[in-house]
Design brief:
beta-galactosidase activity; 8-stranded parallel beta sheet; carbohydrate binding; about 1100 residues; globular; hydrolase; 69 strands; mainly beta; Lactase
């Protein structure tokens, strides 16, 4: 702790200010003071990284925050309006005797995430503002974090160096002092700021850096970007030394090809500070040739501010996301009198590529591309937006390994080092201005009482033009909008990975966007411009949409910007496939359309990762979302909508996305193309630029029954398959051993031939499966436990008991269902009297997914699908001629209040070998719903059956619109691993196309087996009730509680998952119609030991 007596900030206003001037952080006209022009990102060797431990003070508002000892008269207006009433007091009266308590804080970081102390709290909103809407004003309670640290200048630096202070990112606004001298001010949280501190820094001894950071500023109104509100210095801080007399302040690299896309011109524009003639040396090296020098260009430059040069390059290797080839560029300056003594050298990497809108399509190097992308926020579960570079790198590797080729930086420029990695690994990047003001929508819509259920286009017409008037269509904000566009363009202009500039996100549309577009076209004509808010593409180079259905996309592609059947601008989906919880569904449908319609060039899934933050409860923690930190208002779970969990490991949605966007497709040709014992496969190359020489093709032929028998495996020789073409390859079936009663499957995989900078050799890029026979896999069904003992029947007024030396089944005559099944080894089925009264019952309900909650779940609950009751209409029991016992049950399943139900006619047939055959006919009646969550059986089994074995799709979950990524095989898994622990509990773990499933005791290997009488089925097994899954806010051990029984679902129909949380709902073909259905299942007591 340290103490400090300071002069009150109210005495210190900017020169010319009066007591009526607003503070900088409440003045839309002041978004920077003394900041140097934004330049291309590079950090010279003469630099000091100031990351680490800083002194820190937290205050509830600026008035209570400390100030440095002031050494000049140019201190900015940092005070709040409430202090101005004392402006005329004498200096003696204004001496502040507050004792300030200082602590330590990590930089980069956010003060709300400091575990050791309570410095505010994280707050999540998606759309709404967390403060009153009255721009440019901000709350009086404006938490202020003051940072302080010492630094010294490296003695090896030249005495005449220009010393700069650089911040890569500070949220949301800040004033800076060095040694008590005011240095400057900046707002624009995700944009860099650089200040010249040469005149304030001491070359000998220690210097004090003092930074006051404000949680809210007028810029907060245009930083409403569907993420946590977090404050502080969250990116790197540097002290930089530039040459003092002659230096390069900035440089711009552009590459242009000739009409044949063969030879190129390297264009350089170099911003100089020089008072004397200098020499510029340009060297371009090819690293693959042992740093072979391609170009060595020397040019004398008179005293000037800019040097422009064009250098011809013969047949350079082209940069693409598939071939991210980079050259080494050296730019050096020296005195003309001493050309060998370099004053300054900049090392950069150059990728030769050219981006155009040509014939209505987005093309790179003359070729149409398809964006298979994701939206990416800065996020780390412990550090918020202060993301370590190693974590970013791992994210990008995971993207490449999942066939992702594009990133939209949502909704602000990323850590600049991320773009260096994108250049090296190969991504198409949409680089977006730090701009979103979505919250103005609610400020307009709520007073108009506009329901969210209203058609989106209607809501836009009623609200968007009014919402734009706050800032986007307000000329007072023009310069601040332009500043944010200039910052991203000038910082990131030299990255080949950046192919599109974006004017921001969900900021409506107004005159300030038009000014931004004009600026971009003047500053950089080599890249197209994107902005979804410009619905008619007046000042953008492409049409962009969010979450249209595939049907709507068909309409848009044929009508928007189309005249006489022709169009001049492409379409991309800047957001689609909302990946919230168990989803997204129908990704394959979008991919099919992207291939069919050349105008639509892909898009970006929303979004890459959940944004959960660690919420600690003692020594334990869970991943929290809106409201978990006592934050109000908040938008709850909407921050958990990624393809990755909050620790950035893949969800099932990412696995699905990898499969459907795989750049290589394999399909089996029909029988008419099969000659003899040969399978013909078509290999299609969907890369945009490269052939398939980098992959190897392997195959295996397997017999699937109780286990996997590999019948043949080998390598498929691939012919040359250039991009956009396909070839037929053949797999011989000669001498394949016949396996009785087994399904035979051919699986083909395409893997990397050699290691890359993003994956090891053997990494699988694409695969396909093909069934080679039509066996029903009867051999996969274990034989029942044999018994020579006939069945005994004991009847009482309330129940029937059927048993022999192997098992006992009890049937409840009051409920019309089985309540217990006990084998000689163990209990198999049991009822849960607190929830169910039977061990087997027709099942229609499931816990909702996130995508069900807005529409389907309320619909289903409105029809009482979750509250079905049973009325027994008739029961009969008989013994068949073959010694089986047959029970026929007629029940009526219906919810309270309503006039609809399901007539359930079920036959239970029990044989002496511990086999239970269930045949059901379900007939809906009355004012019934159109669709249901599922149709099947709920079977309540003992939790001791904790090992599963099954033949079907796996190893992960699958649903009708989310199953492309799963393979048919024989799987064995602990029951606990079947459930997907989404960070918001919900329905999960369904598995489709099952031929059989077995639940076995881990020690005895005995248990229960289920098969469907005809065809395949879906199944799921978990220990959590649907009620618990629906009401729990977080996974175990906090709110999910294991039930006394495990519920096995055996379904003949299950609903898809869709993207209804934000986007299209489940498609009609993936719904479960509420109509008559007949099905049968066979349950058996089995033993692997005796099989």
């Amino acid at each position: 702790m340290a103490t400090q007596a300071v002069v009150s900030p109210v005495l210190y206003l900017p020169k010319g200010s009066t007591s009526s001037d607003p503070p900088d952080y409440e003045n839309e006209q002041i978004f920077q003071r003394n900041r140097l022009p934004t330049r291309a990102y590079w950090i010279p060797e003469t630099s000091i990284l100031l990351n680490g431990e800083w002194d820190f003070h937290y205050a509830s508002d600026p008035l209570h925050a400390p100030l440095p000892k002031v050494n000049d008269d140019a201190t900015p207006n940092t005070s709040s309006r409430s202090s101005w009433a004392t402006y005329d007091l004498s200096p003696e009266e204004m001496v502040d005797e507050i004792v300030y308590e200082w602590t330590k804080i990590a930089v980069p970081g956010h003060w709300q995430l400091e575990r050791s102390r309570k410095f505010g709290r994280p707050q999540y909103t998606n759309v709404i503002y967390p403060f009153p809407v009255c721009p440019p004003h901000v709350p009086t309670d404006n938490p202020t974090g003051t940072y302080r640290r010492q630094f010294s200048i490296t003695k090896a630096w030249a005495k005449d160096s220009q010393i700069r202070l650089r911040f890569e990112g500070v949220d949301s606004a800040y004033h800076v002092w060095v040694n008590g001298h005011f240095v400057g001010y900046h707002q624009g949280s995700r944009n860099p700021a650089e200040f010249d501190i040469t005149s304030t820094v001491q070359s000998e001894g220690q210097n004090e850096l003092f930074v006051r950071v404000y949680q809210w500023c007028d810029g907060s109104y245009i930083e409403d970007q569907d993420q946590w509100w977090l404050s502080g210095i969250f990116r790197d801080v540097y002290i930089l030394a530039f040459p003092g007399k002659s230096r390069i302040d900035d440089y711009t690299v552009r590459t242009n090809f000739d009409q044949d896309m063969q030879n190129a011109v390297l264009e350089l524009s170099i911003d100089l500070f020089t008072l004397e003639p200098i020499q510029i040396d340009i060297t371009l090296c090819d690293p693959s040739g042992g740093d072979l020098v391609l170009v060595s260009h020397k040019q004398g430059i008179p005293p000037t501010s800019t040097a422009n040069m064009k250098i011809a390059i013969k047949e350079p290797k082209k940069w693409t996301a598939e071939t991210p080839y980079l050259y080494e560029l050296l730019i050096s300056i020296s005195d003309q009198s001493s050309p060998d003594e370099k004053i300054q050298t900049i090392q950069a990497k150059v990728g030769f590529r050219q981006v155009e809108i040509k014939n209505g399509q987005l093309v790179v190097n003359g070729e149409r591309i398809v964006l298979q992308g994701v939206n990416r926020h800065d996020h780390h579960p412990s550090f918020g937006r202060a993301v370590p570079l190693s974590f970013i790198h791992q994210d990008l590797l995971l993207m490449k390994q999942h066939n992702i080729n594009a990133i939209r930086c949502s909704h602000y420029p990323p850590n600049p080092k991320m773009l260096e990695l994108c250049d090296e690994l190969g991504f198409w990047v949409v680089d977006e201005a730090d701009l979103e003001c979505h919250g103005f929508y609610d400020a307009v819509a709520r007073p108009l009482d506009i329901p969210e259920e209203m058609d989106y286009e209607k809501r836009k017409k009623l609200t968007f033009s009014q919402a734009a008037e706050y800032t986007s269509n307000n000329p007072k904000w023009r310069q601040q909008y332009l500043d944010r566009m200039e910052s991203v363009v000038q910082r990131d202009k030299n990255h080949p990975s950046v192919i599109i500039w974006s004017l921001g996100n969900e900021a409506f549309y107004g005159c300030n966007h038009k000014s931004m577009y004009d600026y971009v076209k003047k500053a950089d004509h080599t890249r197209p411009v994107h902005y979804e808010g410009d619905a008619k593409a007046e000042t953008t180079d492409m049409y962009s949409y969010m979450y249209p259905s595939t049907e709507k996309l068909v309409e848009l592609s044929k009508t928007e910007g189309v005249t006489d059947g022709k169009y001049s601008k492409p379409i991309i989906l800047c957001e689609y496939g909302h990946a919230m919880g168990n989803g997204p569904g129908n990704l394959q449908g979008y991919q099919d359309f992207f291939k069919k319609c050349l105008r639509v060039q892909g898009g970006f899934i929303w979004e890459w990762a959940n944004h959960g933050l660690h919420r600690f409860q003692g020594r334990r923690s869970f991943l929290g979302y809106g409201g978990d930190f006592g934050d109000f208002p908040n938008d709850g779970t909407f921050v958990m909508d990624g393809l990755c969990f909050s620790n950035h490991t893949p969800t099932p949605g990412l696995t699905e996305y990898k499969k459907v966007i795989a750049p290589i497709k394999i399909s089996r040709q029909g029988n008419e193309r099969t000659t003899g014992n040969v399978v013909e496969l078509r290999i299609e190359n969907h890369y945009d630029f490269i052939d398939l020489n980098h992959v190897t093709a392997t195959f295996k032929i397997e017999a699937l029954a109780q286990s996997i028998i590999i019948l043949r495996a080998g390598v498929i020789e691939l012919p040359s398959i250039p991009t956009g073409t396909s070839q037929i390859v053949k797999v011989s079936l000669d001498n394949i051993r016949q396996v009785e009663n087994a399904e035979v499957w051919l699986t083909v995989g395409l893997r990397l031939k050699h290691a890359t900078n993003w994956a090891d050799a053997g990494h699988e890029i694409a695969w396909s499966q093909h069934q080679l026979n039509v066996s029903k896999a009867l051999g996969s069904i274990m034989k029942p436990l044999a018994s020579s003992s006939e069945l005994q029947l004991k009847a009482t007024r309330t129940q029937w008991t059927i048993n022999n030396d192997l098992f006992e089944i009890i049937f409840d005559r009051s409920t019309g269902g089985i309540t217990s099944w006990r084998s000689v080894h163990q209990k198999l089925l049991l009822s849960d009297n607190t929830t169910y009264k039977t061990a087997i019952s027709p099942g229609f309900w499931r816990a909702p997914t996130d995508n069900d909650r807005p529409h389907n779940n309320p619909y289903w609950k409105n029809f009482g699908v979750d509250t079905m009751t049973t009325q027994v209409r008739s029961l009969s029991i008989s013994r068949t001629a073959s010694g089986e016992i047959e029970i026929q049950s007629h029940t009526f399943l219906s919810p309270p209040i309503l006039d609809w139900g399901i007539e359930a006619y079920i036959t239970y047939r029990i044989d002496p070998n511990q086999t239970l055959q269930i045949n059901a006919k379900l007939t809906p009646t009355g004012k019934k719903p159109d669709h249901l969550p599922r149709i099947g059986l709920d079977v309540r089994v003992t939790p001791n059956l904790s090992t599963t074995s099954y033949l079907g799709l796996g190893p992960g979950e699958s649903y009708p619109d989310k199953q492309a990524s799963q393979k048919i095989s024989v799987y064995r898994s602990p029951a606990k691993d079947l459930f997907t622990y989404y960070e918001v509990p919900q329905e999960s773990g369904n598995r489709m196309q099952a031929r059989y499933v077995r639940l076995l005791h881990e020690q005895t290997s005995t248990g229960l087996q289920a098969v469907r009488n005809h065809g395949t089925f879906s199944w799921a097994l978990n220990r959590y009730t649907s009620q618990n899954l629906e009401t729990a806010k977080h996974p175990v051990p906090f709110e999910l509680r294991e039930d006394a029984v495990s519920t096995l679902r055996l379904d003949v129909a299950v609903a898809g998952v869709g993207t209804g949380a934000c986007g299209p709902d489940v498609l009609p073909q993936h719904r479960v119609k509420c109509e008559e259905v007949e099905f049968g299942f066979e349950l058996r007591g089995v033993s692997e030991v005796s099989a």
